[in-house]
Specification:
6 helices; single chain; mainly alpha
């Protein structure tokens, strides 16, 4: 799975570039031609964002019917340290065919929509800080 997720993100990034090229003027095309590195950076970010989204799904931070579910290795089969991290990535799979399709779809979306994963991270962090502030207020009030 760890190769398919970033690959779908990279493909999403390339499709996004192709979609944008329809609205680019000739002058902008000349500028883009001069900065090939910038063009290649979009799909690379797409692959990285797809991996980050994969971690978000694995962690359960985002869940629901629209998002994939995973089958994790049995608790007693897990190892400690570095072997633990490697086993999570090697032995964790989408629970069904539809969960695999959902994972690949969202990986593509992460690459296609450059703002999707950063906005998701912002939403999660703001929700977490709001919850932390509420807990702090409750603790101060003695609840």
């Amino acid at each position: 799975m760890t190769w398919a997720v970033p690959l779908c993100g990279i493909i999403g990034g390339f499709v996004s570039i192709q979609q944008r090229l329809n609205t680019v003027t000739d002058e902008e095309l000349a500028l883009l031609d001069a900065s090939l590195f910038q063009i290649l950076l979009v799909p690379i970010f797409g692959g990285v964002f797809a991996l980050v989204l994969y971690l978000v799904f694995l962690s359960g931070i985002v869940s629901g019917d629209l998002f994939p579910q995973f089958s994790f290795p049995a608790q007693d089969a897990r190892k400690s340290g570095d072997d633990f991290m490697l086993s999570i990535f090697r032995e964790t799979y989408p629970s069904s065919g539809s969960d695999l399709a959902k994972l690949l779809f969202w990986s593509f979306v992460a690459g296609f929509s450059e703002r999707f994963v950063p906005q998701l991270i912002n939403n999660v962090t703001s929700s977490a800080s709001s919850a932390s502030e509420r807990n702090d207020r409750d603790d101060a009030a003695g609840r």
